[in-house]
Structure formats: structure tokens, C-alpha cells
Amino acid sequence: MSGAFHTGKYRNVFKEMGYKDTAIQEKLEDAWKQIFYGDEDTRIYYPSSDGGYLLDTGNLDVRTEGMSYGMMIAVQLDKKEEFDRIWKWTKEHMYMQTGENAGYFAWSCNPDGSKQSFGPAPDGEEFFALALFFAAHRWGDGEEPFNYSQQARDLLRTCLHKGEDGNGYSMWNLDNKLIKFVPNCEFTDPSYHLPHFYELFACWAYPEDQVFWKEAAKASREYLTLACHPETGLAPEYAYYDGKPNNEKGYGHFYSDSYRVAGNIGLDYEWFRGSEWERQTANNIQNFFAEIDPEDYRRYTIDGVPFSEKSLHPIGLIATNAMASLAAEGPNAKRMVELFWNTPIRKGDRRYYDNCLYFFSLLALSGNFRIWNPAE
Length: 376
Ligand SMILES: O[C@@H]1[C@@H](O)[C@H](O[C@@H]2CO[C@@H](O[C@@H]3CO[C@@H](O)[C@H](O)[C@H]3O)[C@H](O)[C@H]2O)OC[C@H]1O
Fold this sequence. Notes:
The protein is mainly α. The protein has 2 domains: 1-43 and 213-376, Glycosyltransferase; 45-170, Glycosyltransferase (Alpha/alpha barrel), CATH 1.50.10.10. Helix content is 47%, strand content 5%. It has a two-stranded antiparallel ribbon. The protein has a two-stranded antiparallel sheet with strand order 3-4. Strands 5-6 form a two-stranded antiparallel ribbon. α7 runs antiparallel to α8 (207-227). The longest helix is centred in the middle third of the chain and has 21 residues, at 207-227. The chain is globular. The ligand O[C@@H]1[C@@H](O)[C@H](O[C@@H]2CO[C@@H](O[C@@H]3CO[C@@H](O)[C@H](O)[C@H]3O)[C@H](O)[C@H]2O)OC[C@H]1O is lined by residues 56, 58-59, 63, 65, 107, 119, 121, 123-124, 182, 256-257, 312, 352-353. Residues 56, 58-59, 63, 65, 107, 119, 121, 123-124, 182, 256-257, 312, 352-353 line the site of ligand LLPRFTAL. This is Glycosyl hydrolase family 8.
């Protein structure tokens, strides 16, 4: 792989901690069975005549976030049927052919396929692109829309070049190289910053876009050092380009979106040894939560002051804090993994977001969240 240092190693943190191979495998298989094919209290995946979708069970809609997460989980586990079903549904119903956002995907649809919004959410696009590259490398390209690598390259081209003809906006700010919250705004969401993805886009995007992606990886790593609080490590949901929380609409605190930052830091450290700052920040986040009973997780200011409001997704938070152990080395690294290991998947209405994060953490901590290179 050119242009990026890749560790090439995938730690099995569960195994390092003494859990048996068979128990780890069972946990993975059980998560797949329950989350994709379980009963109405656990499943979030629904095959349909036009493919298959993941339902945000809390909001009763289908989000590009969930669809792209489902594809990433499926490709990691070699589940081509589910991957193809989700991608087919996505292309058929979520893709926008016209308007200011043509070439992007509608971030929220109804389960019947009708669009709830005609705007995209860039975290979906970046996950789609990497999941598609991995699919191309694992299974080979097929007929459209399963010509995965071309779909990924075209999508990334749209993300950067949209608006050059005067219609619409790019998903990244082309000057500072930071991902936007939505294309037509100039602030960001720290949990959207995935430098470890951009390193790979720098290898596999169209040649004219590769330098941008390399610079974006650097910019996002630097950005996260501004957005995460220096002592707690906590990031707000939305933030300005200088890293300061954007609380214009109440999203300037540590809450649902923010949880992903810890997991992202863990995976960047695992894949690319992003930076020593990542190690320190993973330690800081884990130290902060080590003092708090998971039953009492809340919304926090990024300097750690709790609100009365409880966390909406405590299991997701347990999962991402554990995933940070790929980078952390402090006294709480094992404790967070142990807590996660002993936490069952979430049941009930709000299970979608928690269980997506749960699945990512399970993959990452068992050495199964891998870079799939060409011809592997
Ligand atoms: O205003 C929308 C904006 O809301 C949208 O963002 C997507 C939805 O929110 C994010 O994740 C949610 C975290 O909280 C959980 O309770 C939800 O179930 C999750 O979906 C998600 O990352 C975003 O893609 O983006 C488009 C904007 O117009």
C-alpha cells in the first residue's frame, strides 16, 4: 500500500485478556444472529423484495449511517448476500438523481423506500466508500451496481468535486480539508473524522484525488486534537473548524454522536498508529468513565460536567469506550473491555445505534475489523 504506514496487524484484545477463541467466536456469531436475524426485540436488519435495510428502531427510519454500517459489518464478516441487498436498497431508494444534492444519498428514508429528506449526511458517504472498496477487494467487482470499486471512486469524486459546476457543495471543505456536518454548512462533527479511512482513499480513489485524501487524513488527526478536551478527551457532537463546540442548536456537548470518537481513535491507532496523542486521549476518555457507574451515564459538557439527562445509548458508549483500548494503555484499558464483554446487546426500541457501535467494537477487539487490500 503506497503512501500510508499500515501496521498490518490486528490485535485480538479479547484473547490477550484470556477469553477463549471459542467464546469470542460464539459472541461474534451470536451478535450476527441477533442483530441481523433475531426476533423483533433484537434485529435491525430487514431483507425485502428490493434488497434489505437496517432500521433506526428509535426513529423508525432508514439512515445512510445504518446502511453504511451494515455494509461495513457485512464485508468484514464475508456476508456478501446481505452486503449486496443493503447496497441495492441504498442505490435504489436513497441515491439522489436530481437537485442540489444529486450524486449523494438521502440521509433518511422511510422503510417503504420513500425519502424523508433530500439532504445527505457525510458520515454515510465515507462509510459507503470504504465498505465498497473492501467489497471489491474481497469479492471482486460485478455488474452495476455491484461494480463496487467504481461506485466507491465515483462517490468520492462527487464528495470532493460536487459544486464545481455551480450546483451543490462538496462534503469536505477543500481549503482546510475537514469533513462538513452537511455539504451546505461550514462546521463539522468530530465523530465524522476518520483519518484511517482517508489513508485508504489516498491509495484507492481516482489518482487526481489521492493527494487530497492524504492531506485530509493529516488534517483530521490534527483537528481531533483541537476538538477533544485536553483532560477528559471528550468531544462535542458538533464543532467549529477551530475545534470549539458548536452549541447553536444544543449539540455542543458530549452526547450520542460523540461516542464514536473513542472508537475511531482506537481503530486509527490499530490500523495506522495515528499518533501518540490518540493513545493519551484514549486513556483520558477511559479514565473519565472509569469513575462513573454505566447505569448513570449522562450528557456531559466536554470538560466533564454532567447534565441531568441520561445517555440515550449507554451500551453504545460502553462499546466505543472499550474499542478505545486498541489505543489505550492505561489502567482502565482492560476494565473497559471487560465491562463491554459482560454487556449484552441492547434490546427494545433504542437498540439500533447501540448495537451498531456494539458490533464495530466486537469486530475491532477480536481482530476482525480489517483493512481489505486488493487481491487479498
Ligand atoms: O440534521 C440532520 C442530521 O441529524 C443527520 O445526522 C445523522 C443522524 O444523526 C447521527 O446519528 C444518530 C446518533 O443518535 C442516535 O440516536 C441516532 O439513532 C443516530 O442516527 C448520524 O451520524 C447522522 O448521519 O445528518 C443530516 C442532517 O441534515
